[in-house]
Amino acid sequence: METASVARALELSGPLRDLLPPVDFCCAYGSTLLHARPDGTSMVDYILGVNDPLQWHSENMERNPSHYSSWMARLGPDAVTWLADRVGVGVYFNPFVEWRDKRIKYGVVGMRDLAMDVLGWDRFYLSGRLQKPVHVLVDNSDIRKVNTVNLKMATSASLLLLPEEFTEYDLYAQICSLSYMGDLRMLFAEDKDKVKKIVEGSFQPFQLMYRPMLQQYISEGILKISTHGQRKAFKQDCGVSATNELFSSLPWTIQRKMQGRFASDGQEILTRAVASSKDMAATCVRKSLRRQDMYRIERAGSWLQETLETRYSRAF
What InterPro entries does this protein map onto (predicted)? Predict the structure, then answer.
């Protein structure tokens, strides 16, 4: 690891050493990390994975009661974990936390919920975050290794959504866009150029993350390298066999939408999920990632909780 990277990791790990209770996983992310010289109003974002969220919030409330709104501090850690599970897709955020000369925001999630989302897109919240470059600072449970499954699923889903020919930039933009499909925040709250800024600001980290998946699909004949001007480009096999190879890599939450059924001896038996065409597979991916209304409400709830905490927590 380069000296600059080590120094950056030590700087980002400061709140973990000096401020917060121990965690089992931590990554830093956000647009602030894309800028060499962020301004004084910038805020670094963290996801903290802990084995027991209730115990962790209990200890953190004793150490850092000012991180919580007054009404939430009065209700206690049980209310925090209830809000995270019922509204915040398993994550509870404390924003605008002052630490030394910086502002941070951290979201706390149970390790079981984190692993389930990464492996199965159970709620497609943290899994979407970890499909983009992050700075992993603590990883006691080897989430980085587990996340390779998530990265392969993201690659497969994006290839199904992309046309036959596309550039390397197009691929990373599509991967980055997956977690924003059906996201209510993108309709009225988020920066419309967010995807472009993320990809352009983290192009090399994207390349490092997804190189093994691309090499695998090239070796299997699903992808071929070409050029588009000065940019690396790809041409993919859009046949039924290649399509189902990609589709079979997706989480079961998506595959089951294409699962067949037949009756045998009075029992309904489920068959293997098969896509008859690339267009059909792409449509299934789009519909699945837009999710049912309940998941949209949960996702919006997480944003609403962040927004309410951000705007009003210091007013109570």
Answer: Tam41
Q: Are residues 33 and 169 in the same domain?
A: no
pLDDT at 309 over 90: no
Distances (CA, A) of 155 to 86, 149, 186, 205, 206: 30, 10, 22, 15, 11
98-111: pLDDT as tens digits? 988 889 999 999 99
**For 154-163, how does the pLDDT look when each residue is reduced to its tens digit (9 = 90+)?**
999 999 999 9
Three-class DSSP category at 49: strand
Residue 96 to residue 134: CA distance in whole angstroms: 20
Domain with 67, as residue range(s), is 1-123
Residues 6+ apart with CB under 8 A from 180: 128, 186, 190, 194, 195
Dihedral pair phi/psi, residue 108, rounded to 5°:
-110, 130
Closest-CA residue to 122 (of 140, 110, 132): 110
* Same-domain status, 104 and 157: no
Q: Which of 123, 154, 187 finishes a domain?
A: 123
Q: Tell whether 91 is covered by a domain.
A: yes
How many structural domains are present in the chain? 2
Assess contact for 169 and 204: CB atoms under 8 A. Answer: no
Q: Whose structure tokens read 């919580």?
A: 68
Q: Are strands 231-236 and 165-167 parallel, antiparallel or unpaired?
A: antiparallel
DSSP for residue 229: T
For residue 15, is it within any domain? yes
Q: List Cα–Cα distances, 297 to 186, 204, 263, 302, in angstroms.
A: 14, 34, 36, 9
**Tokens for 243?**
């399509």
User: Which residues 6+ apart lie within 8 Å of 298 measured at CB?
Assistant: 87, 88, 89, 123
Contacts of residue 37, Cβ cutoff 8 Å, sequence gap at least 6: none
Q: Which pTM does this prediction carry? A: 0.85
